[in-house]
Amino acid sequence: MDYKKKIYILLAVGIFFLSTSGILIKVASAPPLITAFYRMFLTVLILTPYFVIKHRSDARYFLDYRPMLVGFLLAVHFILWISSIQYTDISNSVIFVALQPLFTIILEYFFAREDLKEGAIIGIVMAVIGSSIISIGDFYQLGDKLFGNFLALSAALFASSYLFIGRGVRKKLNYFPYLYILYSYAALFLGVGVYLFDIPFTGYGTNNYLIFLALALGPTLVGHSILNLAVRYLPTSIVSLSILGEPILTTFLAWLLLNEQVRITTMFGGGFILGGIYLASVYNNHQNKKKNKLKQAQS
């Protein structure tokens, strides 16, 4: 088996672990803020020995305000997304969070002066249509699932914001120390939130602590690490688009393991959203390749 096939298999494993996060969060009985805190705290705890041994010289970047800001945005993203799963179906939540690439394209248009190409516009329109279809299907539960959908949508916006703002820091730092500092600040802000809201840090039972550990090890460490590895060997477009498999797989796992039914409106709306993300991502990656070739020709 050649290395590319191995990377594709590894990528599929990474997507699988990422797709388990919604299931794990759904079965946890701890408050969303506690779940988010322990997910980040345990991740940082596991990564600390390697950071101290290999990357302690990068600790100076803890004093840079940008990782602190990005860590705050990541913390808010986790709070919103984990909370959304308490109010709406897992399928709805993961589909709305998957809108992150479209929000990134919009942020690039407003703040990085990137042009909105035709494909990106079509993708955004399709995503808006899909979101409307899902929301109409949830309208009869206005105070419940519609609110959960809004939280998931907001989580996607904060996810794209922390990725967008963090680009400048990522150019200075290697991926591992950047993630470590980012996760550390996210854990810190989440811990402050737990303290301010006077939520107990302990007393959630063995099952919940095992779920927290599973979230740290599976979706966070294994899932994200594999995506980072895959980007080094496969085109970014392939890795980005493979992430679209996460909401599909999560929805299937929710149906299989939690007996969560998927409504027709979710399937149709989700199809529009995922199709829109696919179109926008393909066009965006295509434009980036053209720009890079033009820069190389000019240099």
UniProtKB/TrEMBL annotation:
The keyword Membrane applies. It comes from Halanaerobium saccharolyticum subsp. saccharolyticum DSM 6643. GO terms for cellular component: membrane. Belongs to the EamA transporter family. Pfam families: EamA. The keyword Lipid metabolism does not apply. The chain crosses the membrane at residues 7-27, 33-53, 65-87, 93-112, 119-140, 146-165, 177-197, 209-231, 238-258, 264-283. Residues 6-135, 147-281 form the EamA domain. Keywords: Membrane, Transmembrane, Transmembrane helix. It comes from the Bacteria. This is EamA domain-containing protein.
